[in-house]
Design brief:
Elements: E1 5-8, H1 14-23, E2 25-28, H2 37-44, E3 49-52, H3 60-64, E4 71-74, H4 84-89, E5 94-95, H5 102-117, H6 120-128, E6 149-153, H7 157-168, E7 172-176, H8 181-187, E8 189-191, H9 194-200, E9 203-206, H10 220-225, E10 231-234, H11 243-251, E11 257-260, E12 280-282, H12 291-309
Parallel strand pairs: 1-2, 1-3, 3-4, 4-5, 6-7, 6-9, 7-8, 9-10, 10-11, 11-12
Helix pairs in contact: 1-12, 5-7
Bound molecules: (2R)-2,3-dihydroxypropanoic acid.
Length: 327
């Protein structure tokens, strides 16, 4: 019996690949960079399963170029790289990997928050560059995390996990967005209208998906509301922040610091003005990047593929409408 063909758009941890290889004819894109568009179209052409990454654009044209496709499985919890409406119209279930990366991504968000508050990256450069001459009463002064107000925008799974970390550091937590009031109560987070949160928070951490509604949610107007000492942390998606407005806000001292795991575009071009700023810390989208978590993501992504190939409901489906059910 011929095995179903699955195209995997990059090498992923073995936990997922091995599972797929047990019952599928798996082709893996081995390059470090994503497959160029033509390669993606070519490889998907006779695939029944597609396991893709957030750096792959999966649109209607790609779906139409892959007539045998039964399932799309994203190696991520976010799925803004996939045209979900087009997939649903074609009866294609789309899988993603919620839950398993929540705590890991929250760890990174909090690491960025701490690093920004205490200017860790600047301080490391200071020492490496041989500029450390003596202990200084005014040297590298940062901001207290304990006792500060943490504003979470998007109190979903990851937002809640960051809020819990904030509470563990004796922060006061306020939030906007996310409908789970019981979770908010359990954490001790108080709801605020967006403008109030922007004005009140010392640290603002973004945890909303990228949608037409959240695109540039943090724009010039939002920065105007923030404190001059505010720190912005983004581990969500780069497009949630207007990068030009962010540059202006950081350069002019409208806010104090930004710590970003995600940028727009991604990767950030080496000549982007944000990279010239000492008060902007950028890491390369590593929110879920631990050995254990990436293995768990790989396993779930593979399980989603297998379920789709067998005509079963995906364990983690973004568009259950394809099964005639509500999300
Ligand atoms: C996701 O899964 O959406 C994350 O951004 C990957 O780290």
């Amino acid at each position: 019996m011929t095995k179903p063909r699955v195209f995997v758009t990059r090498r992923i941890p073995e936990a997922g690949l091995n599972l797929l290889q047990e019952s599928c004819d798996v082709r893996v894109w081995e390059d470090e960079l994503p497959p160029p568009r033509e390669a993606l179209l070519r490889e998907a052409a006779d695939a029944e399963g597609l396991l893709c990454l957030l750096s792959d654009r999966v649109d209607a044209a790609l779906m139409d170029a892959a007539p045998q496709l039964k399932v799309i499985s994203n190696f991520a919890v976010g799925f803004d790289n996939i045209d979900i409406t087009a997939a649903t119209q074609r009866g294609l279930p789309v899988g993603h990997t919620p839950g398993v990366l929540t705590e890991t991504t929250a760890d990174l968000a909090f690491a960025l928050l701490m690093a920004a508050a205490r200017r860790i990256v600047e301080a490391v450069h200071y020492v490496q560059e041989g500029r450390w001459k003596t202990w200084g009463p005014m040297l590298m002064l940062g901001q207290d995390v304990h006792g500060a107000t943490l504003g979470i925008i998007g109190l979903g799974r990851i937002g809640q996990a960051v809020a819990r970390r904030g509470r563990g550091f004796d922060m006061r937590v306020i939030y906007h967005g996310g409908s789970n009031e019981e979770a908010a109560r359990a954490i001790g987070a108080e709801r605020r209208p967006l403008d109030d949160l922007l004005a009140e928070a010392d640290f603002i951490s973004l945890h909303v998906p990228l949608t037409p509604e959240t695109h540039h949610l943090i724009d010039a107007r939002a920065f105007e509301r923030m404190k001059p000492t505010a720190v912005l942390v983004n581990t969500a998606r780069g497009g949630v922040v207007d990068s030009k407005a962010l540059y202006h806000a950081l350069k002019s001292g409208q806010i104090a610091y930004a710590a970003l795991d995600v940028t727009d575009p991604e990767p950030i071009p080496p000549d982007d003005p944000l990279l010239t700023l000492e008060n902007c810390l950028i890491v390369p989208h590593i929110g879920s990047a631990t050995h254990a978590t990436r293995s768990r993501i790989a396993l779930i992504a593979a399980q989603n593929v297998l379920a789709g190939l067998h005509g079963e409901r995906l364990p983690h489906c973004v568009n259950p409408e394809v099964y005639g059910a509500q999300r």
